[in-house]
Specification:
Radius of gyration: 33 Å
Distance between the termini: 24 Å
Structural class: alpha/beta
Number of strands: 13
Number of helices: 11
Shape: rod-shaped
Order of helices and strands: HEHEHEHEHEHEHEHEHEHHEEEE
Largest sheet: 7 strands, mixed
Length: about 375
């Protein structure tokens, strides 16, 4: 099946017009333009103060051209002195002027140089620090989560996985919009600006070392191309994707996605259920919202539960994961729980409760 816009996206993937970069979360600092403006204002203040000091004591200076030092000459002397050019055409000749140069103008010259050179050094230091942070981040990143698309679906998915104890340092967001990545940085996530259908963009997100990949793009055809590229780079990662149309779900699974969530049909079923039974709709909506009311989680079977039936477990079991199969709680094959089984249960969400690291929520949009 040929998806709408697939040719355009394929052509875009072949082009190299899209710029991409890795953006690490920044500490709260003053805006660069404001910093530069402050430094320029300080340098201008030093220059004006020096010119006024020279003009106030113009009788103590000698100009080789005409002997007198006017206001323009004072500015000229202040400029060449603070910049350490020193042509020597205007010189202090009186004792007072020389003492002023020693104790006032020389410190001002040093201050002027510190302001200008300090700005350059700060820029170089910031670039070096940013490069060091980026290299350190790449070397330490392992088994992380990559989220493709930071819209409503991507944000909700991140809120769910972070509620299980996943650290924000273990999340990388990929989105073509720089403003969206800035928002992700503000939330504490590392971001990569670029088209996720391109392998070089996903490589910058270290997809080949990721443990799980969440595809939450706005278009189904984009999700298919992203899944193909991500699966090619990482054969072992768990890929969960969302699509709008149910007919595109099989195509996305063929592209490498392990789990596909159909957002449009899921919303439609919830609407229909709410019409037939508002109470049941409220329960389902409660399950979807993470951290309040009821939550659905996956956890391992503990030793005390081995040999029991799912009905005999204290938790409310809805399904049992045995091997690669998901079986209902009333399936005869899981009449007796085994230590290697995993239980999908419904629990009461409490503030501050976190699921164990190896117990992940069921994927949902």
């Amino acid at each position: 099946m040929k998806l709408p816009g697939q040719d355009a996206i394929a052509r875009q993937a072949d082009e190299h017009l899209v710029t991409h970069r890795v953006s690490l979360p920044r500490r709260v600092v003053e805006r660069p333009l404001r910093q530069v403006a402050k430094r320029l204002a300080m340098a201008l203040f030093v220059l004006v103060l020096t010119a006024l000091l020279v003009y106030a004591d113009n009788d103590g200076y000698n100009d080789n051209s005409d002997g007198a030092v006017d206001f323009l000459d004072a500015w000229y002397y202040a400029t060449v002195t603070l910049s350490t050019t020193g042509y020597g055409d205007i010189t202090p000749v009186s004792d007072g002027a020389r003492l002023t140069n020693i104790f006032v103008i020389t410190p001002l010259r040093v201050m002027f140089l510190i302001i200008l050179v300090g700005t350059t050094l700060e820029v170089l230091t910031e670039r070096t620090r940013e490069e060091w942070r980026l290299n350190r981040w790449r070397s330490m990143l392992r088994d992380h989560t990559v989220v493709i698309g930071f819209g409503t679906k991507g944000r909700s998915a991140l809120q769910t996985v972070c509620a299980t104890g996943l650290k924000k340092e273990q999340v990388v967001v990929v989105d073509p919009s720089g403003k969206v990545i800035d928002a992700a940085n503000a939330d504490g996530f590392v971001g990569v600006v670029g088209d996720a259908t391109r392998s070089d963009v996903l490589k910058r997100a270290e997809v080949h070392k990721a443990r799980q990949i969440i595809i939450a793009t706005q278009r189904d055809d984009t999700a298919v191309l992203v899944a193909l590229t991500a699966r090619q780079l990482n054969r072992g990662a768990k890929i969960v994707a969302a699509v709008r149309e149910e007919e595109n779900a099989p195509l996305l699974k063929q592209s490498g996605a392990d789990v596909v969530i159909t957002s449009a049909s899921a919303a439609g079923r919830l609407l229909g259920l709410s019409v037939l039974s508002p109470a049941a709709g409220m329960v389902m909506e409660d399950l979807i919202h993470q951290g309040s009311g009821l939550d659905i989680v996956e956890r391992p079977v503990i030793k005390a539960e081995v040999g029991k039936s799912p009905r005999e477990v204290d938790s409310l079991v809805v399904s049992v994961v045995r091997g690669h199969r998901v079986l209902g709680y009333d399936d005869p094959a899981v009449a007796r729980l085994e230590l290697t089984d995993r239980l999908i249960t419904i629990v009461r969400a409490t503030p501050g409760r976190q699921v164990a690291p190896d117990a992940r929520p069921l994927p949902r949009d």
